[in-house]
Amino acid sequence: MSKGKESKPHIGIYGRRNNGKSSLINRLAGQEIAIVSDFAGTTTDPVKKSFEITGFGPVILIDTAGIDDEGDLGSKRIEKTLASIKTVDLAILVITDNTFGEFEKQLIEEFKKTETPFFVIHNKSDLKQLNDTTRTFIVSQTNASIVEFDTIKAENLEKIIRLIKTTIPESSYKTPSLVGDLLSYGDIVLLITPIDIEAPAGRLILPQVQTIRDILDHDAVSIVLKEREVDAFLRKTKIEPALAITDSQIFTKADASVPRNIPLTSFSIILARLKGEFEHFLKGTPKIADLKDGDRVLSLESCTHHVSCDDIGRVKIPRWIANFTGKKLEFDVVAGLDNLPRDIHDYSLVVQCGGCVITRKQLINRLRPAIDAGIPVTNYGMAIAYVQGIYDRAIEPFVKTKQSSLDYL
């Protein structure tokens, strides 16, 4: 599966070879959906297509290899097909000729395992319609909706579009606020953004852009400045921001510059709360102190990028954790959504980046093996804050907000 560089809802098309999966996508494209761009993978990769669904919005459709593929290359294709289920928000299972057997059951088991909603299309119904026996059997296996379809007449195309709209989880396309629940109308938010070797030329990094937009959406004011300007700005303007957000790499500088009465956190931490598993991060981060000599730490990057000599995930965080613990530790780094180099049980800690370029579903499924195995998980920003002694301050805005909600209830 290619790297998750689209945070739009992902829809996977699954089924056996020659069931008309690609034809279904092409029919959708020609009638209801405008193709924006294509992303072709390798011969073993599913193909990703970006679409705009009228009345819904942009989605990524993933055309996968047949679940019944054969041979060595076929096995690799099947492996990629099954792996893609962890990244999709909705699955469409395509069957034909009233055939529903072990291959389909295997896919449904994977859908259930990853909590992926799905519906079934009986394709090529112009050649053979869905009979009552097959329909009854499918209903006995799943509660999913079943649609008759043929790519020639496309009579039920509108029904398929409606099912996509109603079956896909709302959380996959309605993005919750990053910091809106912390702000009131007209509040000022201070964004501390270092311009260093990892900053893209002429641009801000994605989490900073996302945060600025979220602040504007909540009728608040964002002030962006570099770390060396913070002291002078606060002294000259006498402004008291409602919140300060910093790049995690300069947490200690921001902590020294921002008065204690002003809440302070990081871009990585607000993304951790947005994307999910925040409760597990809160529990797992303090486990850094329990690491022992010989323990192995896994760092998960969600994107691929040029690696600098002082890379945050590959160099700085390992150095900071090792210095904090005083232990001899081993570190592995995995970029994108690639497979892990070892069994998850070989690790004593997993450190996840902010996940700004992947979906909530992708991030949750990325961390699920570690959580299910009882391995502590943390986040770049939370780990940095912990080893630098400002963890309590960094999570305070969110812990306080949660406690306030509980008090209200």
Please describe what this structure looks like.
The chain folds into 3 domains: 10-172, Rossmann fold (3-Layer(aba) Sandwich); 180-270, Rossmann fold (3-Layer(aba) Sandwich); 278-387, Rossmann fold (3-Layer(aba) Sandwich), CATH 3.40.50. It has a 7-stranded mixed β-sheet with strand order 2-3-4-1-5-6-7. A 4-stranded parallel β-sheet has the order 9-8-10-11, with helices on both faces. The protein has a 4-stranded parallel β-sheet with strand order 13-12-14-15, sandwiched between helices. It is α/β, with parallel strands linked by helices. The chain contains 14 helices and 15 strands. α11 runs parallel beside α13 and α13 (380-387) packs across α14 (391-408). α4 (132-141) links the parallel β6 (118-123) and β7 (146-148). The chain starts with 9 loop residues before the first strand and ends with a helix. Residues 1-5, 31-37, 305-309 and 403-409 have low confidence and may be disordered.
Task: Please give a quick description of this structure.
It is built from 14 helices and 15 strands. The chain has helices spanning 21-31, 71-84, 102-113, 132-141, 157-167, 206-217, 230-237, 251-257, 267-275, 278-284, 312-325, 360-372, 380-387, 391-408, and strands spanning 10-15, 33-39, 47-53, 57-63, 90-96, 118-123, 146-148, 188-192, 221-225, 243-246, 264-266, 296-300, 330-334, 349-352, 377-379.
The poorly predicted ranges are: 1-5, 31-37, 305-309, 403-409
Number of helices: 14
By CATH reckoning, the class of the largest domain would read: Alpha Beta
Strand content: 15-25%
**Helix amount:** 25-40%
> What is the H/E string?
EHEEEHEHEHEHEHEHEHEHHEHEEHEHH
* Annotated CATH architecture of the largest domain: 3-Layer(aba) Sandwich
What's the number of structural domains? 3
